[in-house]
Amino acid sequence: MNGPGRRRGIRRRIAALAAGAACLVALVLGVLVHLWTVDDIRGRGEGRAFNAVYAAMDVYHRTGALADGAMLDPPGLPAELRDPADGNRHTAYDGRVVDGVGPSAWAAQRTGGPGSPVLAVQVNLGPELSHVPRLDAAMAVAALLALAVAVPASVYGAGLLARRLQRVAETATRISAGDLDARTGPVAGRDEVAAIAATVDAMADTLAQRLRTERQFTADVAHELRTPVGGLLAAADLLPDGEAEDLIRARVRDLRDLVEDLLEISRLDAGAEQAVRARVPLAEVVREAVGRTGFAAQVAVLAERTVETDPRRLERIIANLVANAHRHGAPPVVVTVDGPAVEVRDHGPGFPADLLAHGPRRFRTGAADRGTGHGLGLTIALGQAQLLGAELHFANAPDGGAVATLRLAD
């Protein structure tokens, strides 16, 4: 997924999380407020009923009359209050609504010994409980208002976080693509994102330093080997003709070619190479490059095109691809020119999976059945293609064989 898609994904996730958290908090608070309110109304109602029974019992014992609201053995008295055997006052909640009265809080006490009437007082809690739905509605409105504020705020905050993360991700992507000079730079804040950015920059610094050291070592070794290898080649030419001389001369030439390849890679790595561009017919350059390799290859021209490129470096790329096809593939090797694209195909086992996944790597030739070599030919071809601003892709044909496609800029 592209960067903006990831940013939108982060925003959506954080907004959804904030909305979910706000809804959960609003729900929990709403339920708690509802329960607390109902419990408070019931508690206050039972307290009022309890006190009313106390006052009514005092009036009843002194005058024998019932105070206002007091009743003896009322038919609606809850069952648990009908036989208060201990003679103490008791309260109960009755959720029933009878003739528009209720829910109610009851309090009751026996007027005398066992078997005496029970004096009870009923407190109607209906009016107070009728306000609870309005309280619930107010809580719902408050929750919606909280969501209306929390979600945009979380989206804005998520956007800030996503932009900071995207800077780090873009830097990591550039580093993985080979741009070792890429850095995130200072990131606002002292949180984990800033720590990640600093870590990525430090990693890039360390990686660049190690790679520069390795490249310098390779260049120094190749440069130091160039003179003695030249001397070896000259000495081999002085040997008397024979099988041993041919073998030694071939091995010394291989060593010379390896040193030259290492020097070329070092120059490409160091950015010391510069393309000298000219307008040339692509098909003609390809034919000359294939002819100079000394390998048999069919050249097919589907569409002629004139391109602006460095013909010497273009020949180097084609020669390396054709040589690789012969050394690691199988004939026939076919070179096809189609407009600005050049395709080199063999009919061998194809490129190994590691090369297709990660590209050519120096001193790695892939599968053993692809032959021997130092793994530098394709690396040099890729480096020269990048210098020319061209694209070099590696694939395997459906019916077998390796396919390398060089696409030049028009």
TrEMBL record:
Entry's localization field: Cell membrane
Alphabetical list of PROSITE patterns matching this protein: HAMP, HIS_KIN
Keyword entries, A-Z: Kinase, Membrane, Phosphoprotein, Transferase, Transmembrane, Transmembrane helix, Two-component regulatory system
Q: Name one Pfam family in it.
A: HisKA
Which positions fall inside the HAMP domain? Answer: 159-212
A single GO cellular-component term from the record reads:
plasma membrane
Q: Does the keyword Transmembrane apply?
A: yes
Q: Which residue intervals define the domain Histidine kinase in the entry?
A: 220-410
Query: Do the record's keywords include Transmembrane helix?
Result: yes
Q: Name one GO molecular function term.
A: phosphorelay sensor kinase activity
Q: Which reaction does it catalyse?
A: ATP + protein L-histidine = ADP + protein N-phospho-L-histidine
Q: Give the EC number(s) listed in the UniProt record.
A: 2.7.13.3
- Show the InterPro entries listed in the entry: HAMP_dom, HATPase_C_sf, HATPase_dom, His_kinase_dom, HisK_dim/P_dom, HisK_dim/P_sf, TCS_sensor_his_kinase
The main enzyme category here is: transferase
Q: Where are the transmembrane segments?
A: 14-36, 137-162
Which PANTHER family does the record match to this protein? SENSOR HISTIDINE KINASE TRCS (PTHR45436:SF5), SENSOR HISTIDINE KINASE YKOH (PTHR45436)
Put simply, this protein is called histidine kinase
Source organism per UniProt? Kitasatospora cheerisanensis KCTC 2395
